[in-house]
Amino acid sequence: MRFRLVALVVLASALLSGCGYNQTQINDEAVNAAWSEVLNQYKRRADLVPNLVATVQGYASHEKEVLTRVTEARASVGGINATPELVNDPEAFAKFQKAQSELSGALSRLLVVTENYPQLKADANFRDLQAQVEGTENRITVARGRYIQAVQSYNIGVRTFPNNLTAMVMGWKPKANFTVEDEKAVSTPPVIKFDGNK
């Protein structure tokens, strides 16, 4: 009788350790931590925007359209409730990614416009803000890369045997991941033309 009980406990332990439950929990926590870092960097960027817009506005007030786009893009980002559950909803994740992409584009246009204003480029406050925005963009890229890797590990775990059986029972689904907006444009090589007369 005692032998059967020990054998049953050993069998149950073996089955539970092979079901992937614990590893899925570890992978889920890694995704949540990576997502928190992504949000942290996006918030840092959003916090820099008002100061950057105010500084540019002081020198380039007639660039109202560009400044308005940056402000609207920041408001759009701020209107999304970025919770850890967002990564479990592909539609909400896509909306979040689109809003962040619009803010990135608006900031890029703003920085291009500032090239026309030498006094603005000479302003120490602007140079500091520009460096902080550029540094934050780099941090966002790194944080997104870590998130992508964490999601990859999680998704592989819930989609491969035998863990997929546990995932099916528990209702775990693959998590949303960052994508390239226009994959076709990215895969098309750029056309480079040289002017032979020069």
Tell me the strand percentage band: under 5%
CATH topology type of the domain at 32-146? de novo design (two linked rop proteins)
- SS element count, helices: 8
Low-confidence stretches: none
Secondary structure tally: strands: 0
Average pLDDT confidence is 86
**CATH class category of the domain at 32-146:** Mainly Alpha
Corresponding CATH superfamily of the domain at 32-146: LemA-like domain
Give helix and strand order, one letter per element, not per position: HHHHHHHH
Question: What does the model show?
Answer:
- This protein has 198 residues and is mainly alpha-helical.
- It is 75% helix and 0% strand.
- Helix 2 runs antiparallel to helix 6 and helix 3 packs antiparallel against helix 4.
In brief:
The chain is an all-alpha fold and 198 residues long.
Give structural attributes.
single chain, mainly alpha, de novo design (two linked rop proteins), 198 residues
List the helices and strands and how they pair.
Blueprint: H1 2-17, H2 21-59, H3 64-78, H4 90-113, H5 118-122, H6 124-159, H7 163-170, H8 183-187
